[in-house]
Amino acid sequence: MTPKRRRLLFLWGGHTCMFFAFFRYLFPPLLPVPFLLMASYCYARGSKRLHRALMRNRFIGPSLKDWEGGHSMSAPTKLGAVTGTASGFGVSAYTVQAPIVQVFLLALGSGAILYILSRPAPENIDPPVT
Fold first, then answer.
1. Does the pLDDT of residue 20 top 70, yes or no?
2. How does DSSP assign 75-124, residue by residue?
């Protein structure tokens, strides 16, 4: 694959992931975080300008920087992720009629929540000013 095609493939992947991340607002059980992480990954390889713009975004930039800097999550980010995951999987399990699917959804959601809670807090790079 030529470098230009590879770059275009990563750009297309980043744009697709951003579309699904914003689609989350129309379909609440869909969490935007995995799509934002994938978009950051794709943009880092396809467009430095778009990756910088994503990292400088005042809403999602700090969380993406924490993740890229050491797979860490701040307490407010964890709270939002756990709340969204529990809500999404809980509503999905409640609306499904098949008990085996309910158990599968609850197990998958529990695993995701445990993973979120196991992430370390970001290290404070700048010491507090006294």
1. yes
2. HHHHHHHHHHHHHHHHHHHHH---HHHHHHHHHHHHHHHHHHHHSPPPP-
Q: How far is residue 39's CA from residue 32's CA, in Å, rounded to a whole number?
A: 10
Domain containing residue 76:
72-124
pLDDT at 30: 67
Q: Kindly provide the b/e burial profile for residues 61-71, where b requires at least 16 CB atoms within 10 angstroms of the residue's own CB.
A: eebbebbeeee
CB distance 102 to 96 below 8 Å: yes
Total domains present in the chain: 2
Q: Report the predicted TM-score, pTM, of the whole model to 2 decimal places.
A: 0.72
Tokens representing residue 22 in the block: 């914003």
Kindly tell me if the per-residue pLDDT of 68 is higher than 90: no
Q: Are 46 and 14 in contact (CB under 8 A)?
A: yes
Q: Is residue 2 part of a domain?
A: yes
